C-alpha cells in the first residue's frame, strides 16, 4: 500500500490538504534508440519522504520513488508489471511454499560490498522484527517464524551459500515471487545495521541510481541521484541521473512543467483536468492505474446482512451511474470499475460472471430495493463517510444523489475533518455508516487486491466480510503453480464478491501526468511511476 | 529603558508556557489517531500501532505528553518528526527561508507603500490619489491565492520572467515573485494608512506653525509630517511581519517555497504534535520580539512616548 499526501493544492486552498492515493498504469510498448545525451539529468516531481529511506519502512510514494531507484531487489517490474530478474539469477519452487533463490554473482552495493544472501536475509529479518516497527513489516507475514505481536526470527529464511538462500512460507503462496519486487524486499548492505538512522539519511543501495553525494537528500527541496555504473540489471539508465524535486502541491509541479522547470510529472492537479490535454497535447498521460476505489458497507449495519443485505447492496450498486460521474466530476481521469482489481494487472477481466451489477440500471435497482423492503422495510438515511481533506466531496455527493433519485431514499455524505479521524473510526469499528475505501496495489497481482481486503480476518478487511467459499477459492489460487489457473480462481472468487458486494466498486484511478518537450521515451510503469531509467533527454 | 525591556522579556515567559500548552492541547485534541493515518487506507496491525504510539508517547495522558515535550525543550530537544528528523533541524532549515521571504516582502511593501501613500495624502483629491485609491481597493479585495496563481501563470509560465516555483536553496531572485504577491495586499493597506495619517497630520497646528516659521516643504514633509504619521503604519508593519512569518502558507504552497507555512501545514495534517508546537512556539517568540521592537520604535518616532519602569 503506497500512500501519498499533498499539501496546499488549488482545491485544498479553502481548508484541506489531501491524502490522495495515486496510482499506477501500464500498457504501451517501450523501445527507443535515439542518440540521446547519456549524461543529461532528468528532473521529476516527488514529495518529501515521510520516513528515513529504509526500504522496509517506506510505505508512501514520496520515499518509494527514491528507494525503488536506488535499490534493486530480486526482481523488478517491467512496464506491464511482469517480474523480471534483477539481482536474482533464479527463483524456483515445486510447491509454492519453499522457494530457492539464487543471486547473480558479482553484484555490488555502491560501497563495494557484495550483494549476497545475507544482504537479503538480514534486511528481511530486520524489517520483520516486531520491535523495529517497520511500516512494511506485514509483507513478511507469510514467511515462517513471523510474529506480528512479539519479536521473533524468521526461521523460514535459510542461507545455503553466499549466492543461495531458501524461503519457507507457512502456506502456499503462488504469487510470492511476484511480491519480491516490492520495496520491502530490497537488500541492505551490512553497514546499514550499524546506524540505521544515519543510513536512512544517506542510503547505500545497489540500484540503477545512487545518491549523487553524501547529503544529496535536501529535505523539503530535492534529492539528486546519479547513475550507478556498477548496476548490471535490466533497468540500465539511458540518462545521466535523476533529480526528484519535492512539491507540496500538484499545482506547483504543473506550473513548473509548463515552464519547463521540470521534465516529467506523474500527477496533474485537479484544477488542470479540463485543460491539461490541450496544454500538453501528446505529452499528456492519462491511463488506468492499479488503484481501486470503492465504498464499504459493513455487514453489521442494520439492513445490510443476509439476503436483505445482498439485495440492498446490489440495488445501491446498480443505482450508481459510474460513467457519468467519472466523466463529469473527474473529467475522465477515473475509469469505471468492471471488477475488484485493476485493468493494469495480469488476469484482469471485465466479463466476470456477476459483474453486471456494476452497470447502471435504475429500474432494476428500484425493484431490488423494493424486494429488500418486503423482507424488512427500510428506515433512516444511507450515509457515506469520507475525509473532507481529501477532495472526495464531489463524487460522494453525486453518488448520494444517484441513490436518492433512483432508490427514493434519503442519502448523503458524512464528512469528517481529517483522514486520521475517519481511519480511526474505521479501524476501531465505531463507524456506523458506509465509508470510502481505496486500495493501491503493492505488487502487480490479482491476489493483492483480494486477499488483504476480503479474506476472513484479513488486515484490511474493514467491513469484516467473511465467506468460506471465497476464502477457499483464494487458497486454491494461492496453491496453484500455474499463473493462468491461479488467475482463473481469483476471477471465480470475484464472482462471489459480486453477489455479496462487501464493498461497492466505483472506479479505477487513472495516472495523469505529462512531460516536457526536451525528454522522450517516457513510459509509466504499472505502479503509475514513470520508468525513469528509460527516459532520454536532449 | 533597560528595565522596561527586561520586564517585557520576563512577560514573555508565561506567554511562552501558555501558548505551548494551548497549542499542544489543540494538537492533542485533533480527532483521529495520527499513527493509524500513517498507514493510509491500509489497516495496520494493532500491535505495531501500539508500539509506535508508545514510541511517540501518544499512549500517555495529555499532561504527561506535554511535560515530556517541555522537559525536552529545556534540554534543547524539540522532539522528532514521524520521519525521524529532529524538529530543531526542520526549524533551522525552514525559518531562514520564510524569514528571507518575509523580509523581502516587508521591504517592498514598506518602501512602496509609504512613498505612494505619502504622495497620495499630500495630493488629496487629485488624480494620483484617486488612482491609488482604486488600485488599493482592487488589491485588498483579491484573495491572495488568486494573485499568486495569476502572477505565477503570467510571469512564470507565459512570459518566463521568473521561475514558476522556488528552486534549490531558495535564492533571492526566486523569492521576488512570491514576495511581490505577499507584499501586494499589505502594500494596499499601508498606502491607505499612510495616506489618511498624512492627511490628518498635515492639518495639525504644529505643521501650520512650521510653515509659518518659513520652513520649506523639503524639511516639513519628511521631518514633521511623515515622521509623525508613521506610528499607525509601524504598528501595522509589525503585525504584518508576524503574519508574513506565520501566514504565508498559501503563497508558499503555490510557489513551492520550502518554508515554515508549508512545513507547518504538512505537520498539522499528519498530527505531528512536537513539530506543530515547536513551530508555533518559535512563531510566538518572534511575534513577542517584533512587538517589543515596535514599542521601542514608537519612542524614536514620537519623543512624547517614554518608557517607565
From TrEMBL, chain B:
Transmembrane stretches, start-end: 12-30, 101-122, 134-155, 233-255, 275-301
Main location: membrane
SUPFAM superfamilies membership: MetI-like
Subcellular localization, as worded in the UniProt entry: Cell membrane
Gene Ontology CC annotations of this record: plasma membrane
InterPro entries: BPD_transp_1_N (IPR045621), MetI-like (IPR000515), MetI-like_sf (IPR035906)
Keywords: Cell membrane, Membrane, Transmembrane, Transmembrane helix, Transport
The keyword Transport is assigned to this record: yes
Residue span(s) of domain ABC transmembrane type-1: 95-298
A Gene Ontology biological process term: transmembrane transport
Topological relation to the membrane, as annotated: Multi-pass membrane protein
Family, per entry: Belongs to the binding-protein-dependent transport system permease family.
UniProt protein name: ABC transporter permease
Lineage: Bacteria, Bacillati, Actinomycetota, Actinomycetes, Micrococcales
Amino acid at each position: 500500500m503506497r500512500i501519498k499526501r499533498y499539501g496546499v493544492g488549488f482545491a485544498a486552498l479553502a481548508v484541506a490538504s489531501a491524502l490522495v492515493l495515486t496510482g499506477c498504469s501500464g500498457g504501451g510498448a517501450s523501445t527507443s534508440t535515439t542518440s540521446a545525451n547519456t549524461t543529461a539529468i532528468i528532473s521529476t516531481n516527488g514529495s518529501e519522504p515521510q520516513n528515513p529511506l529504509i526500504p522496509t519502512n517506506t510505505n508512501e510514494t514520496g520515499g518509494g520513488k527514491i528507494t525503488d531507484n536506488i535499490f534493486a531487489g530480486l526482481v523488478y517490474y517491467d512496464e506491464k508489471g511482469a517480474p523480471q530478474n534483477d539481482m536474482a539469477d533464479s527463483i524456483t519452487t515445486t510447491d509454492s511454499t519453499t522457494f530457492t533463490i539464487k543471486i547473480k554473482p558479482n553484484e555490488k552495493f555502491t560501497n563495494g560490498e557484495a550483494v549476497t544472501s545475507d544482504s537479503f536475509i538480514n534486511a528481511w529479518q530486520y524489517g520483520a522484527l516486531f520491535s523495529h516497527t517497520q511500516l512494511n513489516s506485514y509483507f513478511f507475514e507469510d514467511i515462517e517464524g513471523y510474529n506480528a505481536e512479539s519479536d521473533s526470527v524468521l526461521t523460514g529464511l535459510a542461507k545455503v551459500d553466499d549466492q543461495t538462500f531458501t524461503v519457507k512460507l507457512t502456506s502456499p503462496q503462488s504469487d510470492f515471487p511476484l511480491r519480491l519486487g516490492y520495496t520491502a524486499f530490497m537488500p541492505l548492505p551490512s553497514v546499514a545495521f550499524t546506524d540505521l538512522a544515519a543510513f536512512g539519511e544517506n542510503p547505500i543501495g545497489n540500484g540503477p541510481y545512487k545518491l549523487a553525494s553524501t547529503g544529496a537528500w535536501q529535505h523539503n527541496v530535492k534529492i539528486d541521484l546519479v547513475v550507478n555504473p556498477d548496476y548490471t540489471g535490466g533497468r540500465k539508465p539511458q540518462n545521466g541521473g535523476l533529480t526528484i524535486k519535492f512539491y507540496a502541491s500538484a499545482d506547483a509541479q504543473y506550473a513548473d512543467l509548463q515552464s519547463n522547470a521540470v521534465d516529467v510529472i506523474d500527477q496533474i492537479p485537479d484544477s488542470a483536468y479540463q485543460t491539461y490535454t490541450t496544454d500538453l497535447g501528446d505529452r499528456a498521460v492519462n491511463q488506468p492505474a492499479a488503484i481501486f476505489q470503492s465504498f464499504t458497507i459493513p455487514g453489521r449495519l442494520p439492513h445490510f446482512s443476509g439476503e436483505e443485505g445482498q439485495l440492498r447492496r446490489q440495488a445501491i450498486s446498480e443505482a450508481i451511474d459510474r460513467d457519468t460521474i467519472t466523466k463529469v466530476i473527474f473529467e475522465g481521469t477515473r475509469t469505471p470499475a468492471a471488477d475488484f482489481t485493476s485493468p493494469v494487472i495480469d488476469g484482469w477481466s471485465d466479463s466476470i460472471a456477476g459483474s453486471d451489477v456494476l452497470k447502471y440500471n435504475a429500474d432494476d435497482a428500484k425493484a431490488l430495493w423494493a424486494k429488500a423492503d418486503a423482507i424488512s422495510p427500510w428506515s433512516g438515511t444511507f450515509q457515506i463517510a469520507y475525509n473532507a481533506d481529501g477532495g472526495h466531496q464531489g463524487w460522494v455527493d453525486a453518488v448520494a444523489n444517484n441513490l436518492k433519485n433512483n432508490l427514493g431514499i434519503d442519502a448523503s455524505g458524512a464528512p469528517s475533518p481529517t483522514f486520521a479521524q475517519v481511519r480511526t473510526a474505521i479501524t476501531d469499528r465505531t463507524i456506523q455508516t458506509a465509508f470510502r475505501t481505496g486500495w493501491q496495489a503493492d505488487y502487480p497481482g490479482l491476489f493483492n487486491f483480494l486477499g488483504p481486503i476480503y479474506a476472513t480476518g484479513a488486515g484490511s478487511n474493514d467491513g469484516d466480510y467473511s465467506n468460506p467459499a471465497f476464502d477457499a477459492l483464494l487458497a486454491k489460487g494461492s496453491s496453484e503453480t500455474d499463473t493462468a489457473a491461479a488467475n482463473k480462481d481469483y476471477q471465480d472468487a470475484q464472482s462471489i464478491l459480486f453477489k455479496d458486494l462487501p464493498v461497492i466498486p466505483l472506479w479505477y484511478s487513472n495516472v495523469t501526468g505529462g512531460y516536457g518537450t526536451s525528454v522522450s521515451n517516457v513510459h509509466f510503469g504499472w505502479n503509475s511511476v514513470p520508468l525513469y531509467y528509460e527516459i532520454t533527454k536532449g | 529603558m533597560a528595565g522596561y525591556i527586561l520586564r517585557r522579556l520576563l512577560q514573555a515567559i508565561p506567554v511562552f508556557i501558555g501558548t505551548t500548552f494551548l497549542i499542544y492541547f489543540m494538537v492533542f485534541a485533533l480527532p483521529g489517531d495520527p499513527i493509524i493515518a500513517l498507514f493510509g487506507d491500509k489497516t495496520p496491525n494493532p500491535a505495531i500501532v501500539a508500539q509506535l504510539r508508545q514510541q511517540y508517547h501518544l499512549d500517555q495522558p495529555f499532561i504527561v505528553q506535554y511535560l515530556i515535550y517541555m522537559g525536552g525543550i529545556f534540554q534543547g530537544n524539540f522532539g522528532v518528526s514521524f520521519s525521524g528528523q529532529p524538529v530543531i533541524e526542520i526549524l533551522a532549515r525552514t525559518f531562514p527561508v520564510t524569514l528571507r521571504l518575509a523580509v523581502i516582502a516587508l521591504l517592498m511593501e514598506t518602501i512602496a507603500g509609504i512613498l505612494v501613500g505619502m504622495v497620495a495624502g499630500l495630493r488629496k483629491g487629485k488624480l494620483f490619489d484617486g488612482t491609488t485609491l482604486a488600485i488599493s481597493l482592487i488589491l485588498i479585495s483579491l484573495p491572495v491565492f488568486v494573485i499568486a496563481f495569476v502572477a505565477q501563470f503570467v510571469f512564470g509560465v507565459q512570459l518566463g520572467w521568473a521561475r514558476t516555483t522556488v528552486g534549490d536553496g531558495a535564492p533571492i531572485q526566486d523569492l521576488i515573485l512570491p514576495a511581490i504577491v505577499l507584499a501586494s495586499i499589505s502594500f494596499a493597506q499601508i498606502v491607505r494608512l499612510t495616506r489618511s495619517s498624512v492627511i490628518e497630520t498635515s492639518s495639525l497646528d504644529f505643521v501650520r506653525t512650521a510653515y509659518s516659521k518659513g520652513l520649506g516643504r523639503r524639511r516639513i514633509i519628511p521631518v514633521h509630517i511623515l515622521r509623525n504619521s508613521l506610528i499607525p503604519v509601524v504598528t501595522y508593519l509589525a503585525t504584518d511581519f508576524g503574519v508574513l512569518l506565520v501566514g504565508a502558507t498559501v503563497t508558499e504552497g503555490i510557489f513551492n517555497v520550502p518554508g515554515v507555512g508549508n512545513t507547518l501545514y504538512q505537520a498539522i495534517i499528519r498530527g505531528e504534535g512536537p513539530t506543530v508546537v515547536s513551530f508555533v512556539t518559535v512563531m510566538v517568540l518572534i511575534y513577542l520580539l517584533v512587538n517589543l521592537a515596535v514599542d521601542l520604535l514608537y519612542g524614536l518616532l514620537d519623543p512624547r512616548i517614554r518608557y517607565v519602569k
